[in-house]
Amino acid sequence: MAEELALDLEELRQLQSIAKRPRIQSLIASEIRNLEKLQTSKEEAKAPVPTPISTSVKVPVNPSLSYVSLASFSWDQDNDKVKIYVSLEGVDQEKVQTEFKPMSFDAKFHDVQGKNYRCAIPKLNKEIVPEKCKVLVKPTRVIITLFKASKGSWPDLHFKEDKLKPNLDKEKDPMAGIMDLMKNMYDEGDDDMKRTIAKAWTDARSGKTADPLKGYP
User: Fold this and answer.
1) Distances (CA, A) of 202 to 14, 20, 105, 209
2) 134-137 vs 141-147, strand pairing mode
3) Residue 186 Cα distances to 32, 130, 166, 177, angstroms
4) Which of 217, 173, 180 is nearest to 201 (CA)?
5) Closest to 97 (Cα-Cα) out of 47, 55, 43, 44
6) 164 versus 188: which is more confidently predicted?
7) Can you say whether residue 111 is alpha, beta or left, with left for phi > 0 and alpha for psi between -120 and 50 degrees?
């Protein structure tokens, strides 16, 4: 498996060197990163899995509690963090319960003028650093600060699947992800790229080669 991944990476890098359009170069670079991550995960498979860090404030948990969802809020960001501003008066810092995970957060505000409130995003746009995230209570609002795992701009708070991005499932054959990449490249590529990919597809389906990228220099 490790040898197969190494060969896939080598051929993708060769393909990257002949790509001309920025979109195609970006797609190939994304697939290379995916395969490199898969390769690394295979090498680290025996390493102990760290326990998810929770920065929750210890508030007695009562399963029967009901919460008012805080779906309306504002947010802004810089290169390192995202700040979420929730308009809510009368919040007691000691009665705030938070749970930060790499791709989600859940903040609960108990006994606020007789009600319990909750602000949560089950799947964020990108990863955060749970142990750095925090909640700051102000007189008329609450500020939730999420520290980004990787610097850069988020297009949205919520995760959105990019249909053009190759899907590489670790439990599947990596070649499936490469075939998806080639389909996207065909749709986005110029005439020369389309002819090259079409020939590779034809050869693969006719049995001339089991590797759809074998025809690339």
Assistant:
1) 20, 23, 47, 9
2) antiparallel
3) 17, 39, 13, 14
4) 180
5) 55
6) 188
7) left
Q: Is 107 within 8 Å of 114 (Cβ atoms)?
A: no
* Amino acid occupying residue 55: T
Residues 6+ apart with CB under 8 A from 188: 21, 23, 24, 27, 164
pTM over 0.85: no
Tokens read off for 79: 């290169």
Per-residue pLDDT tens over the stretch 165-188 = 555 454 555 566 666 677 777 776
CA-angle at 129, arms to 128 and 133, nearest 5°: 95
Tokens representing 61? 């948990």
